[in-house]
Amino acid sequence: MSNNQSIVEISQTASQxxxxxxxxxxxxxxxxxxxxxxxxxxxxxxxxxxxVHGPDAxxxxxxxxxxxxxxxxxxxxxxx
Length: 80
What we know:
Blueprint: H1 4-15, E1 20-25, E2 28-31, H2 35-42, E3 47-53, H3 57-70, E4 74-77
Parallel strand pairs: 3-4
Antiparallel strand pairs: 1-2, 1-3
C-alpha cells in the first residue's frame, strides 16, 4: 500500500486521541501519529499490530481498527 490518503487518514485518526498508539510491523515500532513513520512502514509490511495505551484507549482502538479496515489493512490490537 502506498496510498497517501490512507496514510494521512490513519495518522489524523490517531492524532484525535491522547493515548499512545504504536504500530508494530515485523520488528519495527512506529508512532501512528507520525506520517513519515507510516510512509516507510505501511509500504513494506503485510500485517500489523497496534499497541494502545492511555485514557481514551478503548475509543482509540475502535477508531484505528475502523480506519485500517476501511483501507483494506490487516491489523490486530494487542491486548495488554
